[in-house]
Amino acid sequence: MSKTQPPPIHAECVSLLPVDLLRQLEAFVAVAEARSFTRGADLCGMPQPVVSRRVAALERDLGSTLLHRTSRQVELTDAGRTLLPHAADLVARAGHFRELAAAARAAGLSAGIPAGPDPRALVAARRAAAAAGVTLTFTEQPADERAALVRRGRLDVALLPCPPDAEETGAELGAATATGDLRGRRLHLDQLRRSGGDHGRPRVLHLSAEDDVPWVRDPVHRAARLAGLLDGQLCVGTPDTEALTGALEYGDAILCTPAWAAAHRLRWRPLGDVAVRRTYAVASRPRVARELVGAVLPALARAAGLVTDPEDPR
Amino acid sequence: MTTSDAFGFSGEAVRTAHDIRADWAATGLRGALYARNIDTGEDLGFDIHVPYALASVSKLPLALVVLDLIAAGELDPARPVDLVPGRMTPGPTGAALFRHPSRIALEDLLLLMLSVSDNAAADAVFALVPPERVTATLQGWGCDGIVVRHPMRRLYEAAAAVAPDDPVLALELAVRATTDGGGHVLPTLDVAAATSGTAAGLVSLVARVWTDDVSVPAATAQLRELLGHQVNRGRMTSELAADSVTVSSKTGTFLNLRHEAGMVATSTGDRVAVAALTASTVAARSQPEADRAIGRAARAAVDVLRV
To answer: Which CATH number fits domain B7-57+64-75+144-305: 3.40.710.10, 3.40.30.10, 3.30.470.20, 3.40.50.720?
Structure first.
């Protein structure tokens, strides 16, 4: 870079410069302290050619030579000797800054999610959050508990049920079945109706407590009546284990998301009669930045079983 | 009986066709089934081109032809028709049981013959539009697989001729006297001499009635409405109907024959035309299990074919 013509300063340059400079300084300090490119590279944990290139780039940027390269030894030039303490200071400060950032991340966010999550989904969710630079801790609670805890500041963020028009994240609800005796591409509620002459226990459609909200429960209830089901064939607030037992023993159907059905190895089909979604908004403690909430939203959706995860976390 | 001609648009549909045939066999029924979603064209069935004596299902094509003539102005829907006990065709329902002379308008005779399967009403209509004309009109419309050859009266005359005053004997004969190639010692059960039809032919006719692809829209619309008034709910309707599912169909029952053909429509817009033609191998007049097996078959087919 010539002195008469300063480098053009445009956005890309400005944003790249500090990181480049820091890396170059780290390389320079390591080589200078070790008095060797090879040992300096070891100190940085970098290949030696990379370290050489970075020092050379730094010298080019500054317009002065910092190191004398002799056959085996490396000696500091006058300029190098003057600049080394400042470079070392900058590198140390950057290191300290990084440690602080890591500590802040490690403290993380506590997130309230619906009960009964799939452990694999939680692992995938935690990894997704870590990739976004946040450590997430999950707490399983019923919806009203989550709302109370986040209001009192005991949780940083929580997924709270909301009407479909306020949805921030959600998933289509369908019917999961364990037995192969219900036919068709969708599950129509009239399929749960007993056949003539069948006096056995009628099949039940189970709704979890999470779906005990007017925008899910009421349309399903109306559709069930239109399909000629008995009122007892719709069971709201069934615990997961009981619903799964019913599905395996009696051929019951469970209203759930595709991800939940996959986690429990059930066949999932959309409902034929009515379209319903499990919909959530994210509530957060006042001091949690909205950008941070946005960054962890995909991870929360995954943890809550709203996303069918193609990638196996293992 | 081979099972190789059972078919369906998907693996599940083929399995369902086989399951239905096995269920029917276990109930003492042999027969033909065809079901088609008239909007997607997806279908399933077996023996769909095997003709069966249609019995009262023939009132469905008769009604369509008469409604077509009414729409064309050739027949007056208000035309009075006299039904006189002793001269009219007997039967188990409706005006056929009347003890006193009555006068009923042509259009109301159609309602009686489709809602309660009234034989006296049907034959009074056949007197105005003979079977040959019904068949010729159907052929003119390109409706293959349905041949109307005689009024309802002939069914009872034939049964009474071979077994006078002994309905159980007639039933035994019907069950046992089947000859090869669909022949039968009772001419009205012999598909070469009787009013006969195939499941494919009936489904095609029903589908065309629902898509206004036959006759004129005024006639098909009224037929669709009339078929919704059927009171015999023992077969398809008892299994399928709910506030969200309607069944518009015509049954046919004679000796060991139990049929039903019609349209199953759901509140979500699916329209599945179904024809079930069966002959029982059990010599009993009332067979609730057989009726329910037909209902189960229609329900299973609709479950697979609805979108």
So the answer is: 3.40.710.10
